[in-house]
Amino acid sequence: MMTIRQIEAFRAVMTTGTATQAAALLDVSQPAISRLIVDLEETVGFKLFVRGNRQLQPTAEAEILYDEVLRAFVGLDHISRAATEIGKSNKGHIRLISIPALVGSVVAKAIAAFGRQHPGVMISLEVEPSHRIFDWVLSHHADIGFATLPFDSDAVVSEVIARSASVCLLHASSPLVAKDVVRPEDLRGVPFVSLKADTLFRHRVDTVFQQAKVERHLAAEVRSTEAVFALVSEGMGVSVVQGSFHPIERFENVVAKPFEPTLEVNLVAFYNRKSSLPIASRLFLDIVREMAGPR
């Protein structure tokens, strides 16, 4: 059976013209090169070189074989370069999935930062509710998921990257801006911009107001926290959202005040426990930790 060492010796002799120079090129002895060539000739069943005057003259068959070897080595060089790029995280594909509330802040910033450092890696991002994220990660359709609550399952690794407390969003003209802390009773009868009823955070907010026996005036229900910020900025109402994970500075006329009782919100990254995260995915998580972690 033909071996890689035989092919390397053959290529070296074709390149240099002598067994001595080929040996120096491969850092082996000259007899070792000669033995490899003889073994290769026995394997292929025809002569590769005519020996004489310290030169090895390739036969016509050797020239044909050399063309094939060159093509093969070009492929190997390509594979080698690709492996190097993968090791440097300059090549690959990261599949992410996130709840809508995190896309416009932490996740988007991390993607942009990672893209600047590793332009050869493609990133795919899906945006789904929390329960869909678990399914995507578990079924290997996503490498990393981002949500604000961990999943109680041995099938996934849940890592709390950052912690935050809920805040009340107010238009700058609201008299509630003067308060140090906003409570449910302060929002009785005030137009309220809420997340959709199928979100986990909406359920937690509903529970707080129910326990305080405060009925809200729901002015709007929206899918994303970005939309909540936008409507509060336009003066449509107030809201309670997930703390410091959102870039409030992007929205004019919006003021965030502490909300009590406090609803702790965690930024959680999770991935399939049975899968090994690629190097690029691990580096992406490092960026998320740096950007969103404790300050």
From TrEMBL:
Keywords: DNA-binding, Transcription, Transcription regulation. One of its GO terms (molecular function) is sequence-specific DNA binding. InterPro entries: LysR_HTH_N (IPR000847), LysR_subst-bd (IPR005119), WH-like_DNA-bd_sf (IPR036388), WH_DNA-bd_sf (IPR036390). Transmembrane segments: none annotated. Signal peptide: none annotated. Pfam families: HTH_1 (PF00126), LysR_substrate (PF03466). The keyword rRNA-binding does not apply. Residues 2-59 form the HTH lysR-type domain. PROSITE patterns: HTH_LYSR (PS50931). The keyword Transmembrane helix does not apply. One of its GO terms (biological process) is positive regulation of gene expression. Belongs to the LysR transcriptional regulatory family. This is LysR family transcriptional regulator. The lineage of its organism: Bacteria, Pseudomonadati, Pseudomonadota, Alphaproteobacteria, Rhodobacterales.
